[in-house]
Amino acid sequence: MSKTAIVTGGSRGIGLAIAKKLGSMGFQVVIFATKPFSACKEMAEILDGEGISWHYVQGCLDQSDDRVRLIEETVRIFGRIDVLVNNAGVAPLSRFDLLDMTEESFDRVVGINTKGTLFLSQLAANQMLIQTLEGRKRGTIINIGSCSAEVSSVNRGEYCISKAGLSMVTSLFADRLAADGILVHEVRPGVIHTDMTEGVQEKYDRLIQNGSFPIPRWGTPEDVAEAVAAFSLDQFLYATGNYIDIDGGFHIRRL
């Protein structure tokens, strides 16, 4: 039986690279994103060009009904959920100093990045628990976190808080689900070249040139996808609740 992976935020950037990689490995892929399907022509061409079996569900991660519909539609079409990749996330619409951050911005960012991811994971885990065992584990949940879980950015505090919270979501679900054969991991990208970083490209170009990153280049969506692929297979069967930095070594403390 073919395995099925859900990739949230999978219509572009890191999510699309993950969907493409998992599809190339034989997974049936369900992509969940906010934009209407009519606006996903490039995504469709890429996946069809790779011969990937896929389905698109439009919805918002912070809406309970949309999360339920995603799970139900995935099971109805493909029969099961083997991997959930919680990739969808947002940055603040405007960057403000921590002393000027608004409750509205906090609620939006945390509501999507942390709360939405938590409750989608809950739904997916409950579905995995009632499925027949395929392979050497019952399922995998992979959270796409960020170096911002530990690195302070005082002009986007709500984003840092949301990603720090997501790390605890990883630990909690890993703890709760390990005995049931569901493993939970976190991938923490650093500076990845996507549309989310276009507005600060000059800043990160300077950091790279000045030696802030031991591997002196931008990360790519494909770099993140390779890590997700490794966790999705029947490997790392004695590891859960852990994370891997895909950040060019940025996390290393240096003198």
Strand content: 15-25%
Helical element count?
7
Order of helices and strands: EHEHEHEHEHEHHE
Shape: globular
In the sheet with the most strands, the strands line up as 3-2-1-4-5-6-7
What profile does the largest beta sheet have?
Answer: 7 strands, parallel
Round the Cα radius of gyration to an integer and report it.
18 Å
Terminal-residue CA separation: 52 Å
- Tally the beta strands: 7
Percent helix, as a range, is 40-55%
Task: Look at the structure and give the mean pLDDT.
Answer: 95
Which regions are unreliable across 5 or more consecutive residues at pLDDT < 50?
A: none
Provide a descriptive summary of the structure in words.
By secondary structure, this protein is an alpha/beta fold. Helix content is 41%, strand content 15%. It contains 7 helices and 7 strands, in the order βαβαβαβαβαβααβ. It has helices at residues 13-24, 41-49, 64-78, 103-129, 157-177, 201-209, 221-232; strands spanning 4-8, 28-33, 54-58, 83-86, 139-144, 182-189, 242-246. The chain has a 7-stranded parallel β-sheet, sandwiched between helices. Helix 4 links the parallel strand 4 and strand 5. Helix 1 (13-24) crosses helix 7 (221-232), helix 3 runs parallel beside helix 4 (103-129) and helix 4 (103-129) packs parallel to helix 5.
